Amino acid sequence: MQLVKVTKPPRGELRRGYDDACGTAHALELIGERWALLVLRELMLGARRFSDLRTDLPGISANVLTQRLEELEARGLIRRTRLPPPAARDVYEATDWGLEAEAVVQALGRWAARSPRHDPTLPLSAVSILLSFRTMIDAEAAAGFSGKLGFRFGPETFYATVEGGRIAVARGPLDGCAAIITAPPTHLAGVVYGGVPFETLTVEGDAALVRRFVTLFILPPKVEIPAVEAGAAAG
Description:
Elements: H1 23-31, H2 36-41, H3 50-56, H4 62-74, E1 78-82, E2 90-94, H5 96-99, H6 102-112, H7 126-136, E3 147-153, E4 156-163, E5 166-171, E6 179-182, H8 185-193, E7 202-205, H9 207-213, H10 230-234
């Protein structure tokens, strides 16, 4: 019997194809590996350090994160750059094509939020809660709202501008914000989506503006899953 040496494909190559010309199949080949889409999600609001990604994706190991970053970079979805002095450290950022995947993240998030099994109390990153605002904003409710709000999540700061029923979110300084919210992302999500009392938030500035802001986002209705008949389940 002749032995055949099996070699691993180079990092970033598509290792297991579906042999299917459908764009959906190729999308799964690009970002279908475990953690890949979530790593890309965390880069939607700007460049991040390796340590930042580890912090906001607590379930991922350093080895797996390294592998996913190498794969996404090789596939053209992210790039690694070097910050100038005095920072002088590597960061990862999404390419223009990679940023286009936000529409995929939004569609999947809206669709999956209808699941009765979705648990909104699980850990949530700053980027995730802010992207959810871009996904779940109710244009009708926000039509008459106008303002700039800041968010302080530990050492990171972000700001959101709502105008004409739409919301824009970015990482950056809080200059010019009418109000600033300081809270863990999971707690803010609880106030916006889970009925946690507004008074539990720490707000600087225009509290009335924030009180209205948290009402602008609506989760889609849960889907009703038919109960499985006892006899069918036993069979």
